[in-house]
């Protein structure tokens, strides 16, 4: 759990010139479409006017969308089919009045800069954990290495830059799709991750098949030639965007014992939305669950994760950690998720927007903005410690909304351990 102090205000007043660099890779010109970038979803939903300097994730998103080639914009931004779940993740969070880590997302070098390496540095300098996608464009060894080096540098004295942060131990988690276990490639990948220092495997189970992302069906998404898969390449068919050798028929009772026999890392299942699956995770001795709908990229019209969370928290009852992602764009969203039962909140696109806007600095800014917003919400709701964040500190703006409980509902009672 991240504990952060307020930021020095000067950090937010940084010069904005860096945010308008153009992408320096000539190969990317072929990617550029002629269309104007769209207005960020967040802006569309809230009718936000963009200020001139980035002080929110929505600002970073606008800068990122302005800079990114069209195909990358579509890949990062898009959800499945009519994008109902993608929108619901965000709007459902906003219907409620109300610490975090970097979640795994693929192909960070599409955003430019040093991709995953920049994300690792920014996270590690702040003592924030990072989940690495198995579709990373930097090797899993390099990611952890640069992260640890950046952290050591901070520890060795340059703390002024991050004054105000209470530095916690960084942690590194490796995401993995459920691939065909008959190949030794998955086994090699797991052992490589453990050897490199990753402490947990996030097994993504909500992608037995790829969701229908319409923009990518209309215009085929491929990695540009200068990029390649740098870690999970053997589990995919070739180094290009190619599909993983997924095994959609895998069952809990065969997968979990097999994974346990191959690694001592913690094992979490990512992509839980139903309380019955949360119960299965307990039954099969998982070390945690990640409540996620893959950022609305898989099953369209799946519930928003914030709506699914309370029922899952009721089943888990504090026995294993609940990680949560989907639509987190503000510190307020982190607070809401914690109040409804999450222990750790994962950032998806918020980190991608920071990365595309300004590399390591942009990711750092995204993390700092969310941290500062989160601390402010804590202060303004009269909460002095993360463990005091409970359902009872939330008010329902729209009690009639399907999926949300009213305050008179007995199940609204907070069951998180104090
Ligand atoms: C561009 C992109 C790539 C992603 N790649 C992966 C991936 O490789 N593995 C995975 O488990 N989840 C992946 N996800 C899902 C994220 O881990 C996370 O569930 C989602 O981004 C959360 O929603 P948000 O981005 O709206 O916050 C990806 C999401 C995006 C936007």
UniProtKB/TrEMBL annotation:
<feature type="binding site">
    <location>
        <position position="297"/>
    </location>
    <ligand>
        <name>glyoxylate</name>
    </ligand>
</feature>
<keyword id="KW-0285">Flavoprotein</keyword>
<feature type="binding site">
    <location>
        <position position="294"/>
    </location>
    <ligand>
        <name>glyoxylate</name>
    </ligand>
</feature>
<dbReference type="InterPro" id="IPR008259">
    <property type="entry name" value="FMN_hydac_DH_AS"/>
</dbReference>
<comment type="similarity">
    <text>Belongs to the FMN-dependent alpha-hydroxy acid dehydrogenase family.</text>
</comment>
<dbReference type="InterPro" id="IPR037396">
    <property type="entry name" value="FMN_HAD"/>
</dbReference>
<feature type="binding site">
    <location>
        <position position="175"/>
    </location>
    <ligand>
        <name>FMN</name>
    </ligand>
</feature>
<dbReference type="InterPro" id="IPR012133">
    <property type="entry name" value="Alpha-hydoxy_acid_DH_FMN"/>
</dbReference>
<feature type="binding site">
    <location>
        <begin position="104"/>
        <end position="106"/>
    </location>
    <ligand>
        <name>FMN</name>
    </ligand>
</feature>
<feature type="binding site">
    <location>
        <position position="75"/>
    </location>
    <ligand>
        <name>glyoxylate</name>
    </ligand>
</feature>
<keyword id="KW-0560">Oxidoreductase</keyword>
<dbReference type="InterPro" id="IPR013785">
    <property type="entry name" value="Aldolase_TIM"/>
</dbReference>
<feature type="binding site">
    <location>
        <begin position="325"/>
        <end position="329"/>
    </location>
    <ligand>
        <name>FMN</name>
    </ligand>
</feature>
<protein>
    <recommendedName>
        <fullName>FMN hydroxy acid dehydrogenase domain-containing protein</fullName>
    </recommendedName>
</protein>
<feature type="binding site">
    <location>
        <position position="133"/>
    </location>
    <ligand>
        <name>FMN</name>
    </ligand>
</feature>
<feature type="binding site">
    <location>
        <position position="270"/>
    </location>
    <ligand>
        <name>FMN</name>
    </ligand>
</feature>
<feature type="binding site">
    <location>
        <begin position="348"/>
        <end position="349"/>
    </location>
    <ligand>
        <name>FMN</name>
    </ligand>
</feature>
<feature type="binding site">
    <location>
        <position position="177"/>
    </location>
    <ligand>
        <name>glyoxylate</name>
    </ligand>
</feature>
<dbReference type="GO" id="GO:0010181">
    <property type="term" value="F:FMN binding"/>
</dbReference>
<feature type="domain" description="FMN hydroxy acid dehydrogenase">
    <location>
        <begin position="94"/>
        <end position="399"/>
    </location>
</feature>
<dbReference type="Pfam" id="PF01070">
    <property type="entry name" value="FMN_dh"/>
</dbReference>
<dbReference type="InterPro" id="IPR000262">
    <property type="entry name" value="FMN-dep_DH"/>
</dbReference>
<feature type="binding site">
    <location>
        <position position="292"/>
    </location>
    <ligand>
        <name>FMN</name>
    </ligand>
</feature>
<feature type="binding site">
    <location>
        <position position="204"/>
    </location>
    <ligand>
        <name>FMN</name>
    </ligand>
</feature>
<feature type="active site" description="Proton acceptor">
    <location>
        <position position="294"/>
    </location>
</feature>
<feature type="binding site">
    <location>
        <position position="213"/>
    </location>
    <ligand>
        <name>glyoxylate</name>
    </ligand>
</feature>
<dbReference type="GO" id="GO:0016491">
    <property type="term" value="F:oxidoreductase activity"/>
</dbReference>
<keyword id="KW-0288">FMN</keyword>
């Amino acid at each position: 759990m991240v504990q952060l102090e307020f930021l020095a205000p000067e950090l937010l007043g940084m010069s904005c010139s860096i945010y308008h660099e153009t992408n320096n890779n000539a190969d990317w010109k072929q990617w550029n479409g002629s269309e104007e970038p769209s207005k960020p979803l967040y802006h569309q939903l809230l009718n936000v006017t963009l200020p001139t300097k980035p002080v929110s994730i929505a600002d970073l998103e606008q800068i990122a969308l302005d800079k990114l080639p069209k195909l990358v914009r579509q890949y990062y931004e898009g959800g499945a089919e009519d994008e109902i779940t993608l929108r619901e993740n965000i709007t459902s969070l906003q219907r409620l009045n109300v610490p975090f880590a970097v979640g795994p997302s693929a192909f960070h070098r599409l955003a430019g800069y040093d991709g995953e390496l920049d994300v690792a540095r920014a996270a590690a300098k702040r003592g924030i954990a990072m989940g690495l996608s198995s579709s990373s464009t930097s090797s899993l060894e390099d990611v952890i290495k640069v992260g640890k080096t950046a952290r050591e540098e901070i520890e060795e004295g340059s703390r002024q830059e991050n004054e105000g942060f209470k530095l916690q131990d960084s942690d590194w988690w490796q995401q993995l799709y459920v691939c065909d276990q008959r190949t030794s490639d998955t086994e090699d990948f797991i052992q490589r991750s453990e050897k490199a220092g990753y402490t947990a495997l996030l097994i993504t189970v909500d992608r037995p098949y790829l969701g229908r992302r319409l923009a990518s069906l209309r215009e085929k998404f491929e990695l540009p030639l200068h990029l390649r898969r740098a870690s999970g390449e053997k589990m995919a068919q070739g180094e290009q965007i190619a599909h993983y050798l997924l095994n959609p028929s895998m069952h809990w009772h065969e997968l979990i014992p097999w994974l346990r026999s191959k690694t001592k890392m913690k094992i979490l299942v990512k992509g839980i939305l139903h309380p019955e699956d949360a119960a299965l995770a307990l039954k099969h001795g998982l070390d945690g669950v990640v409540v996620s709908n893959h950022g609305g990229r898989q099953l369209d019209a799946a519930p928003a994760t914030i709506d699914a969370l309370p029922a899952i928290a009721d089943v888990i009852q504090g026995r294993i950690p609940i990680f949560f992602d989907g639509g987190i764009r503000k510190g307020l969203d982190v607070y809401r998720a914690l109040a409804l039962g999450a222990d750790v909140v994962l950032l998806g696109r918020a980190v991608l927007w920071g990365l595309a806007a300004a590399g390591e600095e942009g990711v750092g800014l995204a993390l700092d903005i969310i941290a500062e917003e989160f601390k402010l919400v804590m202060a303004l709701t009269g909460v002095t410690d993360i463990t005091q964040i409970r359902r009872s500190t939330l008010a329902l703006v729209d009690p009639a909304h399907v999926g949300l409980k009213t305050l008179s509902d007995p199940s609204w009672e907070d069951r998180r351990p104090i």
